[in-house]
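Hi team,

Filling in the usual template for the complex we talked about on Friday. All components are listed, including any nucleic acid strands or ligand strings, so the model treats them as one assembly.

SUBMITTER: L.P.
PURPOSE: interface mapping
COMPONENTS: two
RESIDUES: 338
SEQUENCES:
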Amino acid sequence: MAPPPTPPVVAPLVKLVVRVLTFICLLIGLIILTTNTASIFINFAEFKIRFQDVKAYRYMLATIVIGIAYTLMQTALTVYEATRGNRIGGQGFLLFDFYGDKFISLLLATGTGAGFGVTVDLKDQYGAITSGYDKFFDKGYAVSSMLLIAVLFSAVSSIFSSLSLPKRA
Amino acid sequence: MAPPPTPPVVAPLVKLVVRVLTFICLLIGLIILTTNTASIFINFAEFKIRFQDVKAYRYMLATIVIGIAYTLMQTALTVYEATRGNRIGGQGFLLFDFYGDKFISLLLATGTGAGFGVTVDLKDQYGAITSGYDKFFDKGYAVSSMLLIAVLFSAVSSIFSSLSLPKRA
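RESULT (copied from the run log):
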C-alpha cells in the first residue's frame, strides 16, 4: 500500500505571503530605480544624471528583473499548490525550489551590495562638488534598501524550501 | 532500542575541503585588500589613495573578516568530525550550521556586490582624470573576484548543511 501523502512542512499560504512580499519590495525598487534622474544647472548648462549612467545601478536593475520573473513564477506555482493541495511536478520540483531560492537570494544579495556600495562612495564624491545630485543618490539608497528587504524575504523562502526537501533514505 | 546512527549525507572530508577552499579565497582577498594603496604625483604633490578611503572597501573588509572567523570555526569543527566520526553538539548543531551557512553566504554575496559595484564606477570616474589609480582599482577587482569565489564555495557548504538537516518526523 502506498504511504499517505505527508502534509507540507510550511503551509502554502505562509509561503505565498512571503513570495508576494518579495515581489512587492522588488516592484517598488524597480519603479524608484527606473524613474531616477537628476539635473543640475551650471551657467545655464544642464547636467543630467540618469540611473543608466551608474553601471552598478544597471546591474541592480538586472538582479531586480530576474528576481521579479522568478518570484512571479513561484507565486503562480504556490497559488496552484494552495488551491489544488499539491505541487505541480510533485516532489521532484522541491529540489528545483531549493536550488532556485538559494541562487536568487544570493543574486539579490549581490545586487543590494552593489547598490549600497556605489551609492555611499559616489554620493561622497559628487557631494564634494555639488549637492544637486543628493536626491538622486538618496533614491539609490531607497532602491538598495527595498532590495535588501527582498533579500531577507527570499532568504525566508530559501529556508522554507530547504526544510521542505524530501526526506533522505 | 535506539536506532543506529545514520551516516552523514556528505563525507566530512568533502565538507572540510570546501571549507578550506573558502578560507584560502578569503585570506588571499584579505591580503590583497589591506595592502592596496596607490599614489600619483601632480606638480611634485603626492596624492595617495588607500583602501580605507573607499567606504565600500571597508565594508568588504568587514565581510571578509567575519567570513574568515566563521570559516575557521567551521573548519575546526569539521576536522573534529572527520577524526572522531561525530559532530560536537550532535544533531542539534545541524540547525546552527544550516542558518550560519545561509547567513554567511548571503553576507559574503553583499560584500562581493559592493566591491564590484564601487570599483566599476569609481574606476570610470578616476580614469577620466588620471590613469594613476588604475592598478588600485584592478586590485579592487581582484579582491571582489576572490570574494565571489568564496561565495560559491560557501554556497556549496550551505547546500551541504541543508541536505544534512535532520529528517522531519
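MY TAKE: Residues 12-163 of chain B form one domain. The helical segments of chain B are 12-34, 55-84, 92-127, 134-163.

Thanks, L.
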